[in-house]
Amino acid sequence: MAKTLIATATASSSSSLSFTSGIDSTYDVYEFHFVNIHPQTSGQYFQFQVNAAGQSGFNETMTTSFFRARHNESGSTASLDYEGGFDQAQGTAYQTIGLWGGANADENLAGVLTLYAPSSTTYVKHFQTTIIHNQSSNYAFNNFIAGYINTTSAIDEISFKYSSGNIDAGTIKMFGVS
Amino acid sequence: MPDISTINGIDITTLASFGGVAFADGQTLDGQNVALAPSDTHTFISSQTASSSSSLSFTSGIDSTYDVYEFHFINMHPATNSVLFEFQVNAVGQTGFNETITSTFFRAYHLENGGSAGLGYRTSYDQAQGTGYQELTENLAGSTGFDDSSASGVLTLYAPSSTTYAKHFTSRGNWMAASPVTVDTFVSGYINTTSAIDEIDFKMSSGNIDAGEIRMYGVATS
Fold it and tell me: In angstroms, what separates the C-alpha of A14 from chain B's closest C-alpha?
């Protein structure tokens, strides 16, 4: 079995979901699978940040890129665009991976964040994310975010949250790829 | 229903007399538990680790066992600055890593200083019935001053053992160029042969692979 479920975090009106153990040198690659992530508040951004070993505050330095495809339910608008407002250039903020999330009962976010070699003490830490979610104005958004956490320190904690309001429901599963 | 791999630790191949017997999860055999092979057949096959290597090749293990193969490249670091990470394949019985490829290449990027960001197609790195190595990145940072830079991602190869269809592949990788800049690269295409593919080679466009690991997985069998 090359993909091993390590831990699951389930939201219930949660301010954030964090994995503070299980990220180490056991696996070269970690995947975080988002299943039916539902915001309590409409129009917020779903985001993540990490801590280097021994650090706190979820504020590591990142350089990232962000582009997305979108299509609305009426069929009137569809496009593929770079999102210059949501990337980071050596920023320390939470990285947005979901845009203006819809909070209607059936709206949610799904996708996968892949984190490469978090325990390396030689290289920066690359990550890639593919997200599909309902946007609050009845769009389907398909987001592609990638970048690197610009530290040679090992990464051992990760946190997910909305830019405002709680995660009403949803599950994040952490897998190790061996 | 997955195949049975072992019964109480005894390899099924040693139990030929059970051939034709169908088991299900939770059943017992003469009071003994039956262990089934994992239903998730994302299976690690082999890995190659670079150490000032001119190339990393997988010359066995690509066959009809799996419908889909994944190559996870982790922290590929070139010995030389401004070189490209690339791959090619051999059809069965062929050599030279020069099969015909038609491919696409686009990427998003963002400089660390925030000076530039964008999304665009890169015509310099695609191929139209070309036989060159297919680029998976643009120019990597790799020389002194960029010791922490690398490229990581996944190349997926579909149905390499087919003798009917062309062989599709997709790749997504993130890497650092010397600007410094993060680049998220999407490369896809097909190897335009109906011959089975059984070998794959990864290298830098010039100079050695200083460090890095490539892990080959078999994903599924229909």
Answer: 31
Greatest alpha-carbon span in chain B: 71
Q: CB distance from B192 to chain A under 8 Å?
A: no
Tokens of A69: 């495809």
Do residues B83 and B104 share a domain? yes
Residue of A nearest to B217 (CA): A2
Instruction: Count up the domains in chain B and report the number.
Output: 2
Question: What's the CATH number where B118 sits?
Answer: 2.60.120
Residue-wise pLDDT for B128-153, tens only, equals: 999 999 999 999 987 667 889 999 99
Please report the sign of the dihedral spanned by the C-alpha atoms of residue B37, residue B39, residue B40, residue B41.
positive
In which domain, by residue range, is B2 found? Answer: 1-38
Please indicate if any CB of chain B lies within 8 Å of the CB of A26.
no
Are A115 and A155 in contact by the 8 Å Cβ rule? The answer is yes
Please, which residues 133-152 of chain B have a Cβ atom closer than 8 Å to chain A? 147-152
pTM attached to this predicted model? 0.85
Q: Are residues B150 and B46 in the same domain?
A: yes
User: Residue B137 carries which side chain, given as an amino acid letter?
Assistant: T
The 10s digit of each residue's pLDDT in B44-55 is 999 999 999 999
Q: How far apart are CA B45 and CA B126, in angstroms?
A: 29
Distance of CA B94 to the CA centre of its chain: 20
Contacts of A126 in chain B (CB under 8 A): 150-153, 174-175
A158 touching B (Cβ < 8 Å) = no
